[in-house]
Design goal:
Elements: H1 2-10, H2 12-46, E1 57-58, H3 67-72, E2 77-78, H4 80-112, H5 130-147
Helix pairs in contact: 2-4
Length: 148
C-alpha cells in the first residue's frame, strides 16, 4: 500500500494538483486583499462610506454598533456584508481562472495546429545538359578551325 501511495504521488497529475492548490491558496490571499483593501473602499465611496465587512444583522432585540460588539455579547450575527465580500472574491477568482483557461486553451490549440506548409521553392533554371555543352564546344571548335 505504501508503494502504491508513492507511485500515486510520483505521477505528474498528483504533483500538478498539489502545485495548483498551493498557488490557488496564495492567489486567494491576493484576491482577498484586493477586495478588502482596494475594491471595498472604492465601492464604499459610492455607497456613502459603507464598509461591507461591517454590514450585519444581530439576531436579537438589541442593536450593536459593530459585528465585534455583537459577537462579544454572544449574540448570533447574520453577516451579509461578509457574504457580499465573498461573492466579490469569487467573481474575481472565477474571472481570472476563466482568463487563464482561455489562454491555455488558445496556446494548446496553436501548438496542435500543424505549421503551415512551406511553399516549394521554385526550381532553379536548368542549364544545358552535358550533351548540349559538348555540342556547343564542338561547334565552336569547328567555327574557329574554319575561321582560321
Amino acid at each position: 500500500m505504501l508503494r502504491e501511495f508513492r507511485d500515486f504521488i510520483a505521477r505528474g497529475n498528483a504533483m500538478d494538483l498539489a502545485v495548483g492548490i498551493i498557488i490557488g491558496a496564495a492567489f486567494t490571499a491576493i484576491v482577498n486583499s484586493l477586495v478588502e483593501d482596494l475594491i471595498n473602499p472604492i465601492i464604499g465611496i459610492f455607497t456613502g462610506g459603507v464598509d461591507f465587512t461591517n454590514l450585519f444583522v444581530a439576531l436579537s432585540t438589541e442593536s450593536y454598533p459593530s459585528v465585534a460588539a455583537a459577537e462579544a455579547a454572544g449574540v448570533a450575527v447574520f453577516r451579509y456584508g461578509s457574504f457580499i465580500t465573498a461573492v466579490i472574491n469569487f467573481l474575481i477568482i472565477a474571472w481570472v481562472v476563466f482568463l487563464l483557461v482561455r489562454t491555455i486553451n488558445r496556446l494548446k490549440a496553436a501548438a496542435a495546429r500543424p505549421a503551415p506548409a512551406a511553399e516549394p521553392e521554385p526550381e532553379a533554371p536548368k542549364g544545358p545538359t552535358q550533351e548540349e555543352l559538348l555540342a556547343e564546344i564542338r561547334d565552336e571548335l569547328v567555327r574557329q578551325r574554319n575561321a582560321g
